[in-house]
Amino acid sequence: MSPRFSVVVTAHNEGDAIAACLRALACQDALADGGFEIVLVDDRSTDGTAEIARACAVEGLRLIRIDEAAASSLTARQHALDVGFRAARGQIVLVIDADALVEPDWLRRITAPIRDGRADAVAGRVRFRGGGALAAWQTVDAAFYLGVCRLLSGLGVDRGALFGNFCVLRTAYQAVGGFAAIGPTLTEDLAFARALARAGYRIDYDDATVNVRAAPDWQSLIARAKRVGSGPVAPLSVALAAWMALLPLLAIAALAGGSAALWAAFAVRYLAGAAFVAANLLAGGLRRLLPLALFYEPLAIAIGLRVLAAVAVDPRVAWGGKIYRQRGKGPVKAP
Questions:
Q1: Is 230 helix (H, G, I), strand (E, B) or coil?
Q2: Count of helices and strands (H, E) across the chain
Q3: Is 199 within 8 Å of 176 (Cβ atoms)?
Q4: How many angstroms separate the Cα of 52 from the Cα of each of 21, 228, 232?
Q5: Where are the domains of the chain?
Q6: What is the rounded distance in angstroms from the CA atom of residue 285 to the CA atom of residue 249?
Q7: Where does 57-213 have alpha helices with state H?
Q8: Which residues are CB-contacts of 172 (< 8 A; sequence separation ≥ 6)?
Q9: Going along the chain, which residue ranges are E strands?
Q10: Do the Cβ atoms of 9 and 85 come closer than 8 Å?
Q11: Which of the four, 24, 298, 312, 321, has the lowest number of CB atoms within 10 Å?
Q12: In this structure, are residues 203 and 334 in contact, taking their beta carbons and an 8 Å threshold?
């Protein structure tokens, strides 16, 4: 009998994290209406990821090994996800990262909107662990991003998701043609969410949370932001860019003009942004991070400028053991 749920985990050299991830999944609350399987796609790992996973002896684990990069133009991540989705037997497919840690009720909570018939896909919250400023920053950033997605969803506009905490009906993935139909992109979660929305599928946003490792240093965080920023132009990216750009533009205008009206406009825009971040932190139970709401947007703008400078120097993106660059409508392997 096929399980009702399939948890797809893709891994590239995650030997130091995969055991904790699998053991957390193994502790999920049992659901009376069906069990679940774990589909681990080991994507060309050279650090013994597969061997460590097997040693965990987790019930319901199915291990799929990719030995060579895909011949198609899809990114390595898209190819690994596609392999996992197509191997999944569950009616509902869940996606998390190989360094993710989940609570025992995570599967039950994140799939509830689909099981209740309220949604066809669900995006949940992502928090970053590791302590320090980097983990705090990334947690606030993820809360802000999910808040924007919720807002755009309520307005009926294209929205995004994070594959660090996501689930969808397997039939919906099949209906949109998978990543082969979507095409190559380094922001596969955004592209997939847009494809679902275009096909008329409902995406819900839930407070079920997954914890992942924070970037080890600011250089790694900039590299990740460079990859995320390489995605195609979409209503979500346009809305974010326009909203963020308004803050420095008003600051420059106020400094140049010096009028009380311009300074008031800058203050209103700044406080509105801080209030939006604070509201989403509270919604996610992150009261301890509320002071960061005052600094989030200025730091986000500074990181964005740093990413633009990095792209000007080298437009290539290293990810998952491969190197990509923008060419035409999507990234391709660099020569």
A1: coil
A2: 12, 11
A3: yes
A4: 11, 30, 37
A5: 5-216, 235-333
A6: 32
A7: 76-87, 106-115, 132-154, 170-175, 178-182, 188-198
A8: 120, 121, 196, 199, 201
A9: 5-11, 36-43, 61-66, 92-97, 101-102, 121-129, 165-169, 203-213, 317-319, 322-327, 330-333
A10: no
A11: 312
A12: no
Query: CB–CB of 270/297 below 8 Å?
Result: yes
- Spell out a b/e string for 159-178, using b for 16 or more CB atoms within 10 Å of the CB, else e: bbbbbbbbbbbbebbebbeb
**Does residue 219 contact residue 213 with C-beta atoms inside 8 Å?**
no
CA distance 208 to 206: 6
Q: What are the strands of the beta sheet with 92-97, ordered from one edge?
A: 61-66, 36-43, 5-11, 92-97, 165-169, 121-129, 203-213, 101-102
pLDDT, tens digit (0-9, with 9 covering 90-100), for 76-133: 999 999 999 999 999 999 999 999 999 999 999 999 999 999 999 999 999 999 878 9
Q: Check if the beta carbon of residue 31 is closer than 8 Å to that of residue 108.
A: yes
Do the beta carbons of residue 190 and residue 107 sit within 8 Å?
no
- Tokens standing for 51? 């061997």
pTM above 0.85, yes or no: yes
> Which residue's structure tokens are 């079920």?
208
Which tens digits make up the pLDDT trace of 223-280?
888 888 777 677 778 888 899 999 999 999 999 988 999 999 999 999 999 999 999 9
- The residue behind tokens 């650090």 is 47
CATH of domain 5-216: 3.90.550.10
